[in-house]
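Dear colleagues,

As part of the handover before I leave the project, I'm documenting each prediction I ran so the next person doesn't have to rerun anything. This entry is a single chain, and its sequence is reproduced below.
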Amino acid sequence: MPPTIVMISDTHGFYDRFKVPKGDILIHAGDMTKRGKLEEVERFNEFLRFLPHPHKIVIAGNHDFAFEETPETARRLLTNCTYLQDSSVEVEGITIYGSPWQPWFHDWAFNVQRGIDLQRKWALIPDQVDILVTHGPPRGIGDKVYDGRNEGCDDLLARVLQVKPKYHLFGHIHEAAGVYRQHGITFVNAACLKMTDEQTTVGPFVFDYATGELLKQEAETGETRHE
């Protein structure tokens, strides 16, 4: 049986606002906390402890300051998952690479200036990746904010199109959550909350890894887009 992949992001500590479906591999694309405190990381680890998924993969996001300010301590607190930061893991024959960086915005965690600084981060992505996990979106895909601007990263998009992963999972732009099938890649903005203190949006998402079929979508308020 091909594995099922459960994708979530931007939970911000509101674990009672959404249901996580069962699956083989759970991937969280960052913003596990609201304020980035170590005690929030501990709560997140406890949340993971009670989930049944055999494999749990996590990256940090712009709210998760503890992983930038006290990285060794924060990582030690995550005993119930594999934490990725500019690194990869192979699970059930699937290579998963994770990176927390996003374009600079008011000096949040893992903010990097656009241009050469971000290019260097994306250059670390290996040429062979099956599931790419970043916190922020690529330009023009799952990145539109409420006023219509696209806030994704051009250089990330360029690297994604070079690598051509089967899936690119991200979050960050809550209002653009959904599935986008473009360039032969399944892009998933799996943000679970419309805003950090509001109602559940379109995630979590469950995919049949081999076929790319969307098996389950917990809420129905977002969009599924195709080429």
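The radius of gyration is 16 Å. Residues 220-227 have pLDDT under 50 and may be disordered.

All the best with the project,
I.
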